[in-house]
Amino acid sequence: MHAYRSHTCGQLRPEHVGQTVRLSGWVQRKRDHGGLLFIDLRDHYGVTQVVFDTSAAQAFANAEAVRTESVITVTGPVVAREASTVNSRLPTGAVEVRAAEMVIQSMAEGLPIPVYAENDTTPEDLRLKYRFLDLRKDKLHRNIMLRSQVIASLRRRMIEQGFTEFQTPILTADSPEGARSYLVPSRIHPGKFYALPQAPQMFKQLLMVSGFDRYFQIAPCFRDEDARADRAPGEFYQLDFEMSYVTQEDVFAAIEPVLRGVFEEFAGYSKDKPWTVTSGAFPRIPYDEALLKYGSDKPDLRNPLVISDIGEVFAGSTFKVFASIVAAGGVVRAIRAPGAGGQPRSFFDKLNSWAQGEGKPGLGYIVLEGGAGKGPIAKFVDEPRLARLKALTGAVDGDAVFFVADKPEAAWKFAGQARTRIGTDMDIVEKGAFRFCWIVDFPMFEYDEKAKKIDFSHNPFSMPQGGLEALESQDPLTIKAYQYDIVCNGVELSSGAIRNHRPEIMYKAFGIAGYSSEEVEQRFGGMLNAFKYGAPPHGGSAPGVDRIVMLLADEPNLREVIAFPMNQQAMDLMMEAPAEVPAERLRELSLRVVLPPKKAD
Description:
Strand 23 (483-488) and strand 24 (491-498) form a beta hairpin. This protein is of the alpha+beta class. The strands form six sheets. The protein has an eight-stranded mixed sheet. Helix 7 crosses helix 12 and helix 14 runs antiparallel to helix 15 (517-531). The chain starts with 19 loop residues before the first strand and ends in a 13-residue tail after the last helix. The mean pLDDT is 94. The protein contains 17 helices and 25 strands.
């Protein structure tokens, strides 16, 4: 018999009754019933109940002494449980092992965090410091296994779609990707630095220039940016892919079956009921339409509420608050809430208080009833204006219409927040569904109020719609780009684009953003030089693996689907990184640390 195990702790079934087996694992629970002692023995594969009695004196003594989460090896016969003691919640619950021998392989000290506890309230930083214990918890263990299986499925589906897996450099040059890069000092080139890639952007484009046709990799990416619930600091992984001789629709057609297939495959992984996934082509929503109808460029399509532009209803009206906003170039947005007219007054008061908590004056509304309007601002909406409001929003008797008035950007943002809040409070957000869409037609440029200049609004390597002619003849702020995002349930999974593969268009686009030809050549010379020797039209995208798994696991935070994440301050509490470096190592790298001055108390 093997020194440690003949079977795993998730393997034994009634057909094994009578066999002598050997199991190894962690002591999950102990229950002492006097002359009988029960241990739930756990390994990667499952849990088996082991019974100790005084007939095996040494094994019984060892079982009494061992602490939870110690590693033990048990040998003994498999016996059937009595009908009244069968545990239907365990695959192994019809049998147990009666211990004849037990060896303590590793005795655990007192646990700094609970591994198995009801209503675990351990602070996150303590969980991350003892992540190796945290990962023993069933839910987290399942999440990490889900991640592995999702990556395997993505890889298989991409290969089936004709893509070839490549690896691109980790030590490379710095490039503007919208975030800070991590820099790595060079020992043999004093004063010079490598950068960890924010994405394999330029390398995957260079692969297309090199004559490869369909590239992908599960790519590690590194960005020195602040943490959020849906963004891990430091590093993340994405399904990076690129294709040659393709239009935007070709890219969509290639990746949609991959994402749909993965979500269909794993949608019920941690759910009580099967979830549905968007069928057919994912909806294409222009960026401007997304901001208007959903108040976000990451719309959650499970929420049926939509936003309407109804500024004309209040233009020149006696409701001076809204009328003055419209006259000053602002907008009024309306959110129709079907059937909300039947809600109690407390429903509307609660929403109003929420809006005030967000720093707004409140959330105005009208309830439609008997062909008329009721509510705080209904008296300002005469019959013709009410008719126009109904026409613009589709509202009918029994509905409520909520209003947001402000400058355009502030209005669409708060209207989007209000749409989410109203949908949640009404409990009308679709459950058990993954709803995908593409956001398309992003603006190529935006005006940077802080820098007082035009800058790229998205990916600087994207092809402008209309090409060189658009750059030479249009107002830059009206130019759209072949840029697109994949969104699922309000979570952005990736950004992508059809790339700008022509040097003359790249020089012009960067010139509009304030870069000289010399700067462009200095910063992007490798790729720009390659484009001068024949580059195919190409495009791609890069769905985030961490976010895909987070959605499938139904977790609110990325750290629940990453084996060894940093905390929100970008610190690895378990390995104590980042850490100070000895002076001799700094001298080796020709570096000197200059700390910022301490703030006065």
